[in-house]
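Field log, afternoon session.

UNIT: design team B
ACTIVITY: writing a sequence onto a fixed backbone
BACKBONE:
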């Protein structure tokens, strides 16, 4: 598909930014960790949330490893949906930051959004149940958030634009 774009072919096909450290552990470990961590975050992204439970850069980065893994889980249950909710909320730090977002994400939104986009690729990876209505809704939710980010962000760095464009290329190559 990218034969005429030789310089991008390796970048698109060899990027491993969508993998979590939890992929090194047995599936049951990653699943338990993701389920336990994501549920409290789901309430933190609700419209009435006033404060986020994540305070430090270290906490946010560790949580993002878990969210990344959570996006690879089967679609039954609510873990994948909650991961998508959290990430699409945090992406909006480049559009309209809110107090309910983790402060490290608000302070360095470009860095975090780049990682979020790499992780959100996992939503588009084909699954056995890929034609489910739930999967389609999750993909639409991500694409709507990416569209809003591209249209409304006034502080998106060049590097973030590049990651966004690579994200779009990669999801079309799955």
């Amino acid at each position: 598909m990218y034969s005429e774009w030789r310089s991008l072919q390796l970048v698109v096909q060899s990027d491993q930014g969508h993998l979590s450290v939890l992929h090194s552990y047995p599936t049951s470990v990653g699943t338990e960790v993701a389920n336990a961590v994501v549920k409290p975050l789901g309430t933190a992204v609700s419209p009435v949330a006033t404060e986020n439970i994540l305070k430090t850069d270290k906490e946010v980065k560790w949580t993002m490893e878990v969210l990344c893994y959570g996006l690879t889980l089967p679609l039954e249950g609510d873990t994948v949906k909650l991961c998508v909710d959290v990430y699409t909320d945090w992406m909006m730090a480049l559009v309209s930051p809110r107090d309910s977002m983790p402060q490290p994400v608000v302070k360095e939104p470009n860095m975090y959004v780049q990682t979020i986009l790499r992780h959100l690729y996992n939503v588009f990876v084909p699954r056995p149940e890929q034609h489910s209505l739930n999967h389609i809704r999750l993909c639409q939710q991500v694409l709507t958030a990416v569209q809003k980010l591209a249209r409304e962000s006034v502080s998106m760095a060049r590097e973030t634009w590049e990651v966004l464009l690579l994200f779009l290329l990669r999801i079309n190559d799955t």
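LOG NOTE: The longest helix spans residues 133-152.
NEXT ACTIVITY: expression trials, pending approval
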